[in-house]
Amino acid sequence: MRTATPATKDLYDREMAAARHASDPTARWEHLELAHIVSQPYPWLHTRNHVAMFALAVRQHDRREALGQVVRIIVAAPGSLSGRYPEGNTGRTRDGLMTPMPIPPDLAADLARAA
């Protein structure tokens, strides 16, 4: 199983902490989305990210997002293990489950440094 480098794990942890401490729900989602992009290759981090997204959707009473996150929790680890995940995808229900997306340039630079 692939494990994150310490620098990649720090990047993930930074975004997850920022999501937890953000007072604005939009900012929380944005940090969770960035953490998702970082987490995709790593089964445990990827699954943890979707659990956090599920919890936020439940707190916001967003049934559609919560249901979509349940599906993503189920497929996150197998997708990471098999390498079948859409690079750059934000992990949100509004985005297709297998739709690749561009990685924001600043995050791409952080990921390159962390590798």
TrEMBL record:
Highest taxon of source: Bacteria
Region feature (Disordered): 82-105
Cross-referenced InterPro entries: DUF3703
Protein name: DUF3703 domain-containing protein
